[in-house]
Write a structure and sequence with these properties.
The chain is built from one helix and two strands. The protein has one helix spanning 3-32, and strands spanning 36-40, 43-47. Strands 1-2 form a two-stranded antiparallel ribbon. The longest helix is centred in the middle third of the chain and has 30 residues, at 3-32.
């Protein structure tokens, strides 16, 4: 396995972790009925999940 392949594998694992965290965050916010705060177009925006 080359260095590039190892880096791609690591990137894929990290991306999968971010995706799982995002899904869990949305699920948690829906359960609690609270707003989600995001940064969009240079502004802080509160949205319902």
């Amino acid at each position: 396995m080359t260095k590039s392949e190892k880096q791609q594998e690591l990137f894929d694992k990290i991306q999968s972790g971010f995706d799982a965290v995002y899904e869990n965050l949305i699920r948690y916010k829906r359960q609690k009925g609270s707003t989600l705060v995001v940064w969009r177009d240079g502004k802080v925006v509160h949205i319902k999940p």
